[in-house]
Amino acid sequence: MCGIVGYIGTKKAKPILINGLLRLEYRGYDSAGIATIEKDGIKLVKEKGRIANLNSIDEINTLEGTIGIGHTRWATHGKPSVENSHPHYDNSKTFAVVHNGIIENYHELRKFLEDKGYTFYSDTDTEVIPNLISYYYKTEKDFLKSVKKACDDLKGSFALEILCKDYPDNMIVVRQDSPLVIGKGLNENYISSDIPAILSFTKDFYFLNDREFAVLSRKNIDFYDNDLNKIEKPIKSIEWNTASAEKDGYDDFMLKEIYEQPNAIRETIGSKLSEDEISFNDFSISKEYLQSINKLYIVACGTAMNAGYTVKNTFESLCKISTEVEIASEFRYKDPLVDEKTLCIFISQSGETADTIAALKLAKSKGAKTLAMANVIGSSITREADYCIYTHAGPEIAVASTKAYTSQVVLLNILALYFAEILKTTPKKELSELKKELLELPKKAELALRTVAEIKNFASIVYKETDMFFLGRGLDYYTALEGSLKLKEISYIHSEAYAAGELKHGPIALIENDVTVIGIITNPLLVEKTVSNMQEVITRGAKTLVITNQNIDNSQFFKVINIPETNPRFAPVLSIIPLQLLSYYISKAKGLDVDKPRNLAKSVTVE
Ligand code: AGP
């Protein structure tokens, strides 16, 4: 989804803005632009298509200003075009604005401004913002007050960077339900939609809450609440190193992130888990509170939700708490049965997913306690929730989530064991065996990565296919869902995942000669059942790939790929790895852009 960068300092802003925008490319975009304050006012350059197109416009080289804003646009209101690209001026070219999010009442605001004589040059919702600020500036004659008044009129979501030609040494930023971070440097400050884009410039960040304003100068950042009272904000140091946001010799971020999984899991386990006990540095929950709850909700979107599914049964069987897993975009509109006896866990890599944040706010309003599980430090969800725990997977840049998923599954399992330990609902011996097995996962993930050659070969056989099916029982069904999602996202092959037992109830009608069916078989108690479902598709001519850690008769399948054995509860962490590799190599074989698949954005910050 759209990306924002900003710079105010002593260096030329243009190269810094272009560098930041390039690092935000992975979010997905179809046009880009920058604006700087020059001696003779605000200058703006924008172009359709790639940042390289923008950077090759002659005019961009005339920008000398040391304060500027930049944007990559992912078209929502109005097609990708120069006119619709950001930044946008007001009619008098006193203000320039970039905006992420959606202004829901822009029709009404546009009409109001048109009636006052304003002209609009784009189809965007954004263009009302600079003109509204300009409208209030006529009476307020103050940059911040005018921005605040304009924001009061806006309905919807926004992260805004605003320049004013009358304030050449200031930039104002504000947000509402859309991500934005401020990086602090020495005599310079940076803005971005997310941390990795400016990580090479600073490691010190401020995070704005909804409707907080920041007025940036070169040396200072002043923060204000929605009533324009001055407030103090804590600064947070981010440990991620710059290399973790680079490709580091890999062809694509996705491949790098797949290979980072053993280490990401190791970091997520960190010091929380030993064979003796589980403890979180910055999070604890009392036995009394846990005993008081009668329901757990796990709420998330996409891959994060697939991670949630894998622990439903573990929370129920080890902690004896009834657990529901729900899609955030459904949860938020269904009046869920949630009250003070419910603990709601919200999982999000980015911590900025609009539906997940809205679901969290709803749960809170119904009296439930909320726990955020995020990867991005300081992200919105972590600030909204009552409790917060982090996966320590490091920056995930590729749109297709890989290391975040395995880290989420691991952390959710640690959490379940932690609750079980506090509640004493699982025998000590069983818990300690599970802990031991969790600690083995980084090493086993390394072994699972060794399936790469076989997977690459299988990908070279099936990459031209148009449909594929994934089957599994128990937790393997959730791995099937996640494997199928990965394949769709980056290879554009139509795929479906089914609980293997459901096959006979309809989907088997789709199986025809030579169609690829992938079976995941990791639970010793369910091997025979799934094998017999796979036989049913073989009989109908399917080409079968089996991912397993069980002893099965290989001869009946087209290809069997073995992964390390583990406790069935943790198998999703290992069985997804060959499926991630499969999607990756199919996408490569098709010559697609693995990291930036069509129509997708890394973090879905609008509904
Ligand atoms: C994963 O491959 C997807 N790109 C997508 O489903 C993602 O997991 C989902 O949008 C949720 O994102 P979040 O974890 O940042 O909230």
Structural class: alpha/beta
Helical stretch tally: 18
Give the low-confidence spans. none
Give the averaged pLDDT, no decimals.
94
Radius of gyration: 25 Å
- Main beta sheet strand tally, sense and closure: 8 strands, antiparallel
Strand order of the largest sheet: 3-2-4-1-10-9-11-15
Number of strands: 25
In whole angstroms, how far apart are the ends?
A: 11 Å
Bound molecules: 2-deoxy-2-amino glucitol-6-phosphate
| General form | globular
Jot down its keywords.
607 residues; alpha/beta; 18 helices; binds 2-deoxy-2-amino glucitol-6-phosphate
Task: Characterise this structure.
It is built from 18 helices and 25 strands. The model has no long low-confidence stretch (mean pLDDT 94). Helix content is 35%, strand content 22%. With 607 residues, the chain is an alpha/beta fold. An eight-stranded antiparallel beta sheet has the order 3-2-4-1-10-9-11-15. The protein has a seven-stranded antiparallel beta sheet with strand order 5-6-7-8-12-13-14. Bound molecules: 2-deoxy-2-amino glucitol-6-phosphate (AGP). 2-deoxy-2-amino glucitol-6-phosphate binds at residues 301-304, 348-350, 353, 356, 399-401, 489, 603-604.
